[in-house]
Amino acid sequence: MPTPHTPLLAALAAQIGPVPRYTSYPTAPHFQAVDNDRAWRAWLGDLPDESAFNLYVHVPFCRQMCWYCGCHTQVVKNDDTLERFLALLLREIDQTLPYLPSRPRLTGLHFGGGTPSILGGDGLQRVAEKLYRHFTPEPGAEIAIELDPRRFEAELIPGLKALGINRTSLGVQSLDESVQAAINRRQPLDMVARTVDMLREAGIESLNLDLIYGLPRQTVENVVGTVQQSLMLKPDRVALFGYAHVPWMKAHQARIDTASLPDTAARFAQEAAAAQVLVENGFCRVGLDHFARPDDRLAQHAVNGELHRNFQGYTTAVGEVLLGFGPSAISTLPQGYAQNVASVASWRQAVHNGDLPVARMRALSQEDILRRAVIEELMCHLNVDLATMATRHGLRPDLFDADLPRLELLERQGVVERHGYRVVINEAARPLARQVCAAFDSYLHRQSAAAPPRHAAA
User: Fold this and answer.
1) Which residues, listed in sequence order, are joined to residue 53 by a DSSP beta bridge?
2) Helical packing angle, 79-96 and 120-132, nearest 10°
3) Each residue's pLDDT tens digit, 338-372
4) Given 149, 332, 366, 398, which residue has the most CB atoms within 10 angstroms?
């Protein structure tokens, strides 16, 4: 079977069209609005004692807006706003705790945003004290935070230590000055290096760097240059994301000149070149868009078939429960998904009223759970045995008979190989993993062609 090359992958992606990013299944457009928090409280109350919890805390504020940003965040300049937010965040945690099982096990904690460190060292310590009264981190629990090197100062270190932070993720995106100007994020290499040095001096050594391709004014040359400079910082992990241009969802992205965005073929070339540099420098490919050193736990979980995927991306976290706090935070329970209200004002009002600020939920059917497992297996490990997976979930493999013909184009072009119910994604076609997953997304194929959900181009 022929091995697909970058121009062919780009042509196939353009032919197939936009597909979801598959951080969940069903994907977020299929969550359903709820009028109150009764069902959410019932779901939490049904969790067994000693459940393993992963926690996510979303801080939806930044000091400056980056034009490429697709996160739920807003610019804040008034510290009083942050103090009010922190008080309500602690209150949301307090209002949730009575519905949780006793003796919960904490296997992971992630602070995201926005810019979580905007709460300051004292604010982070207050959150840590609140969470750790109820949750005790298990040995080996990953306690992570996203940091902006442009806003990092020494006064944050005590707060990070109080949280027990053992991994940090720094937003780098691009180190090319022209690209930085186009995305409103000026951040020279020495600024990032200063942050890395301060973290390592404090004993926080595990480091992830976020890089982006497909940004305005990016070329293969300046993407490769960013990767090479980033490697000087000796990261343990690198996340290499494709920019998602969704100005209909994120109005500030309209400030980006679309004429300066690379086309599909250029995006694929940038991704391929960046990946090649990382692999040549000893990094292992993990899933679709992550890279890790061979001794890093993420790489080891990928090799051992233990890698998972959630709303924060690829993870080593264990347990069926991801509990989110803060505006827009998404939780995953065995019963399904729940998302907090995204608007800060509406979230604030719900918490002030004593409610759990859930806005949308999605209960999972047995078929949903099976298809989610199939998509996760493909996204994490590039292969899946549909028959084995169906049997494991108490369903028949012929459930997928209507899906398999959707793979024929990809099979002819060498993207996938199929042996009965076994599907394998060609290593060279890794960037099309989402397009393969889309074949098994029953909601994607049911939706009206006249008004499909608008997904970011994967």
Assistant:
1) 106, 321
2) 0
3) 999 999 999 999 999 999 999 999 999 999 999 99
4) 332
